[in-house]
Amino acid sequence: MSDLPFAQADFARALLGWYQQQGRDLPWRNTRDPYRIWVSEIMLQQTTVATVLGRYDVFVQQFPTLTDLAAASVEQVIDAWAGLGYYSRARNLHAAACLIQTQFDGIFPADPDLLQQLPGIGRSTAGAIVAIAFDLPAPILDANVRRVLCRLFAVLLPPRSAAAEKNLWAWAERLTPQQQVHDHTQAMMDLGAMICLPTKPQCESCPVNSLCLAYNQGLQQDIPLKTAKRSIPTRYQAVMLVQQQGRLQVRRRPVAGFLGGLWEFPTVDLEQVTDADVIVRRLLSQMGLVGDPVLVGTSYHMYSHFKLESLVYLVDLTDNSLIAETQNQWKTRAELELLALHGAHKKVFEQARTGGI
Ligand code: SF4
Fold it and tell me: Can you list the alpha helix ranges (DSSP code H) found in the chain?
């Protein structure tokens, strides 16, 4: 294991002293309930604290216990996740709750190895749950802590490379104390979120600056090393905003598969954008609807492995009789605001609402 270039006790004293004065007071910090800590950790994985602050209380009010979450349908959990994005987290949360109920008699495991066997829980999340809920020594390496450690130890390797990963976990383990693990873990998170910021680290205010190799070598702006961006393909689709009597038509995607269980506007994938008009008219007729689709704009959305270009059609139904709901449902604009639309169509809706397309 990689040795520390300073005494662990010096680091712990400086970090915890600062945390006791400056640590954040967040709603999920007022509990030791592993279920609620797990929910907060999953929410925070790819979402800002500001957004989670607006959603956490509502979610745990709807599902106050692990038993309540496991008893819900996956569709209910997805709908409750609206506004948080990255909905695979909601599906995994539900699946993991069901597994804890059946495999662990509803008792949250206090063992990082067991937790990592559950969907959506990686090594860092498992460590955070065990450290924060049970106060047991387990390291974490989330995005904030990864950046702190890269700078603290002046890592001149791509931060996600195998070599860096091995050393970072080893240092995270060495820095983790045997006691006050709960405070240490939250202090590391706060240091990354409040002081050791991605572009402008506040080194002058940093409690561990005397121990930090990057700071002492003037490298804090250069670390972590940037990784080259990959080029990714573009996919095309036509999206129909079918409206009747002030409402828009939406459908739920199948639970299994990409963006599973989320809502979307009627959509068709396109091989070529030049075919769009014909294909949209065909889809409309297959849906048994009569109207004249008008191309109103284009919306773009980035996924990790492709870019999505959506041609957006507005369709005012010319048949004034109220079209019955089949698999598709009619929603008012107010209902759409709260619906778990997937990210690309949330953007389409926002742009249409504000006149952006
Ligand atoms: S001294 Fe600066 S670079 Fe080092 S850990 Fe503190 S904030 Fe980060």
Answer: 8-22, 34-44, 49-62, 66-71, 74-80, 88-103, 112-115, 123-134, 143-152, 162-175, 181-190, 213-216, 276-286, 333-338, 343-353
Does residue 58 contact residue 43 with C-beta atoms inside 8 Å?
A: no
For residue 331, give the H/E element and its range: strand 329-332
Cβ–ligand 1 distance for 214 under 6 Å, the answer: yes
Atom of ligand 1 nearest to the CA of 207: 6
Q: Which residues contact 261 (CB under 8 A, 6 or more apart)?
A: 74, 75, 78, 87, 90, 91, 252, 253, 254, 255, 340
Mutate to test the pocket of ligand 1, among 212, 213, 219, 223 (most ligand atoms within 8 A of CB): 212
Give every CB contact of residue 214 below 8 A, 6+ residues apart in sequence: 150, 151, 152, 154, 220, 222, 223
Summarize pLDDT for 267-292 with one digit per residue, the tens. Answer: 999 987 788 889 999 988 888 888 88
Q: What is the mean pLDDT of residues 332-344?
A: 95
- Domains along the chain? 8-216 (1.10.340.30), 234-353 (3.90.79.10)
Radius of gyration over every alpha carbon of the chain, rounded to an integer in angstroms: 24
Sign of CA dihedral 42, 47, 49, 52: negative
Instruction: State both tokens at 324.
Output: 């019955």
* pTM confidence score: 0.86
Closest-CA residue to 311 (of 271, 258, 251, 254) = 271
CA angle centred on 28, ends 27 and 32, rounded to 5°:
130
Distance 194 CA to ligand 1 centre (A): 11
**Three-state SS for 261?**
coil
- Is 173 in the active site? no
Q: Is the CB of 186 under 6 A from ligand 1?
A: no
> What tens digit of pLDDT does each residue of 200-214 get?
999 999 999 999 999
Q: How far is Cα 286 from Cα 230, in angstroms, rounded to an integer?
A: 39
Q: To test the ligand 1 pocket, which listed residue (171, 203, 216) has its Cβ within 8 A of the most ligand atoms?
A: 203
For the four alpha carbons of 89, 90, 95 and 96, in that order, the dihedral sign comes to positive
